[in-house]
Amino acid sequence: MESSSYPAVFVAPFLAETTTRFVEAAASLPGVSLALVSQDPAERLTPSLRSKLAAHWQIEDGLDPEQIAAAVSQLAGRIGPPRRLLGALEQLQVPLARVREALGIEGMRSEAALNFRDKSRMKDVLRRGGVPCARHALASGAADAAAFVREVGFPLVAKPPAGAAARNTFRVENHAALEEVLRALPPTSEQPMLLEEYVVGNEHSFDAVSVRGEPIWHSLTHYLPGPLEVIENPWIQWTVLLPREVDARRYDDIRRVGARALKVLGMGTGLSHMEWFRRRDGSLAVSEIAARPPGAQFTTLISYAHDVDFYRAWARLMIFDEFDPPPRRYAAGIAFLRAQGRGRVRGIHGLSEAQREMGSLVVEVKLPQPGQLPASSYEGEGYVVLRHPRTEVVEQALRRLVTLVRVELG
């Protein structure tokens, strides 16, 4: 139950747009006295958010557990000993866990946080727990990589063990490509490279809310196509579909696997984001799981599919261990607009026709602006969010949308 004064600290190294939405949601909860720790100065906050915060503390490195702990200790003098310490970034989960341990704050500990953050360790834990996932190995040099190739063959996937959002992730098709990756990102015993069996199939996510170790709610998405294919082909416009039929029997297997995976990794209370494949033979393979909210506007999609503010729901979950599972009223989908060519954004084509055909489905738009530099990620320069009670209507509209709208660089 929410009390009249509930001190909590939110750590946000940088005040990016999505991160700020999470901070504002937490600061808006009745009874919460929220302090913010950030590398960004208080002047970067909007007047609205500044008025909702109880305190702000600036540090040099927002991922350093010692600096975070020192900041939290100082803030305790202003708001009282914090009962919760939270943050939405993947890279923060281990530092936050260590600070909780050092200061006696309730929440995920470092052993569980490392299970989610270190992808090689994660797969070891999952396989021991009977969760299906791709074969993998850590390579500290060319010899380790060659041994893994002899075991699984090509293609394979190479990435850092603590990566996020498919950054520095490569599909390796042959020995020449492997040598190129090893030259570009030479692994060492201190910083090895994670090699994985390349799984062929349809890629999805499984986002779950757990309270005290029990999964009580889930969401599913379909990636159209998978992020790695999008990274490799700059012309592809990535789309993500949230089907309305989230409880359909065809998802029974991933619900069982997802619950098992969270149990063996040590999930307590929180929102997790799991990426998984359905192979062509129908079997499943878990790719990886993160103990934090999903990126790529998934929280926005979930909000529209359920007609709730899911940013606020996450904040309430993390601070009070409370979550009311909402019904899924709609299917929802997002099309990411990726620019073609070189230079800055020069124009957007096809908007009028797209508006005529599917304008009634659009619930949120962020259009690329003229002169804007191209983004470095597969999320592109803008996006369009659609929703409708029928899943097939949203899926067809997403496919049509990315054939109509084109962002031109020049």
Task: Explain how this protein is built.
By secondary structure, the protein is of the alpha+beta class. The chain has 3 domains: 6-107, Rossmann fold, CATH 3.40.50; 135-197, Dna Ligase, domain 1, CATH 3.30.1490.20; 201-409, D-amino Acid Aminotransferase, Chain A, domain 1 (2-Layer Sandwich), CATH 3.30.470. Helices cover 35% and strands 27% of the residues. The protein has 14 helices and 19 strands. The protein has helices at 17-27, 47-52, 65-79, 93-103, 110-117, 119-128, 142-152, 175-184, 227-232, 252-265, 298-306, 310-320, 351-358, 391-404; strands spanning 6-11, 32-38, 55-58, 84-86, 136-139, 156-159, 170-172, 193-197, 201-211, 214-224, 239-242, 270-279, 284-290, 331-337, 339-340, 345-349, 362-366, 382-388, 406-409. The strands form 4 sheets. The protein has an 8-stranded antiparallel sheet, with helices on both faces. Strands 3-2-1-4 form a 4-stranded parallel sheet, sandwiched between helices. Strand 9 (201-211) and strand 10 (214-224) form a beta hairpin. Helix 1 packs across helix 12, helix 3 (65-79) crosses helix 4 and helix 13 runs antiparallel to helix 14 (391-404). It is globular, with a radius of gyration of 22 Å. 43% of the residues are buried.
